[in-house]
Design goal:
The structure is a homodimer. Chain A is mainly alpha-helical. Chain A has 2 domains: about 60 residues, Orthogonal Bundle (Arc Repressor Mutant, subunit A), CATH 1.10.10.10; about 140 residues, Four Helix Bundle (Hemerythrin (Met), subunit A) (Up-down Bundle), CATH 1.20.120.530. In chain A, about 70% of the residues lie in helices and about 5% in strands. A 3-stranded antiparallel beta sheet of chain A has the order 1-3-2. In chain A, β2 and β3 form a beta hairpin. In chain A, α4 packs antiparallel against α9. The longest helix of chain A is centred in the middle third of the chain and has 25 residues. The radius of gyration of chain A is 18 Å and the shape is globular. The interface between A and B is medium-sized, with 25 and 25 residues. Chain A binds a DNA duplex through α3.
Chain lengths: ~220, ~220
Amino acid sequence: MIRDALRDAIIDRRLAPGTKLSEAEVGALFHVSRTVVRAALQMLSFEGLVRAERNRGAFVANPTPDEARQVFDSRRLIEPGIAMAAAERIGAADIAAFRMALAGEERLLGERGPSARRAEIRASGDFHLLMAAVAGNAILLKFMEELVARSSLVIALYGRSGASSCGHGDHGRILSALERRDGVEASRLLSLHIDHIEMDLDLRVAEGMALREALATE
Amino acid sequence: MIRDALRDAIIDRRLAPGTKLSEAEVGALFHVSRTVVRAALQMLSFEGLVRAERNRGAFVANPTPDEARQVFDSRRLIEPGIAMAAAERIGAADIAAFRMALAGEERLLGERGPSARRAEIRASGDFHLLMAAVAGNAILLKFMEELVARSSLVIALYGRSGASSCGHGDHGRILSALERRDGVEASRLLSLHIDHIEMDLDLRVAEGMALREALATE
DNA sequence: CAAGTCAAGATTGCATACAATTTTTGCGTC
DNA sequence: GACGCAAAAATTGTATGCAATCTTGACTTG
């Protein structure tokens, strides 16, 4: 439970990258001992959302542009295959779930404000996770959960505020292809979709980050 | 350190699938408290080598044939892409490391006995991990570490004793393609190679496993 | 004699206490 | 006023103790 609460806060960027997650402080907030906090932090460290330093503590991950590229390279490698599998296995119940997720996304696109943006990033990730679930491979689903979480963090960090984070209708078209069981087309659209997301990022800030990071550590 | 020792023991099948890993017992063996043992077991649980049950304890994973298939499906999806990346980035030092790994493998192929078989499975996995390291994506490397570990467990469980587990020279041919920087060919060979490994397994024991599993739990 | 029940033992889950390390802070000196 | 050093405060790493849960085996009962 604590892990999920922290993960949500990190992905929503309520916890800024670099923030120190003191065991005692987190424990006080949740009214639990450091023991369980440590377990939660260890899990998040495995997911790459938290960076743990020996004898120094845990910090909200601050992915570099290079790490951001690795996240999207990984997704470009894995997700098209997931789309192929999902196209083969998709059923009526799955399609209904997709339609509901899409409706939620489009509703959020109309809203304004930072909380709507957060919800939008989250909903967009859920679409991809739903597809991974339909593909029916638990291991790949776990990988995708990690990649989507890291993507959300990267988008929150490097996303251009102007452009909308994800769906220019991409999700809708991908779902259409899945419904037609056209795995090849779904795969192709998904690949383009990941390109779109990455192009929306501003990964040029490679230099100078080390200094700001030191400042952000508080 | 404890995590690595346990992982090696699991992969080498010195710890049989289903074996209970009691916190107190493991702690006594390593002369540490249950606290650190719990941390190690949590990590292995994340890697899928250990199955943790609430209030019951941790057990060496006993992958079902279906899980085994998912492992190899995942590898079929990811590894060809890694081969492509590795072909682009491979350097002289990498090739030297590959040659050394291959020499070790072929030496092991000549030896007899269960300990040579274990070392062979391990060396075979190291070849794939080396390729992932050369590919230069830390996230994919971590995924591959998990997949290779799980594969080793699956091979130990379902491998036919007759056929040699991995290299019918496959690794050598893949390395040749990498040296020529022929990513497409390396990718194709790797895909076939994974098929070879999976064909060497006997995954038909789907039924009746539940009973044997209950017995193996001790 | 089989089946259900309950108590004793064992094991995990969590909290807390102590040790080790790092960070901060205060003092002295240049 | 700046720098260096040392002591104190804070934080993490590990061990241990107690409570909760599960397992086991004997005992009761139909």
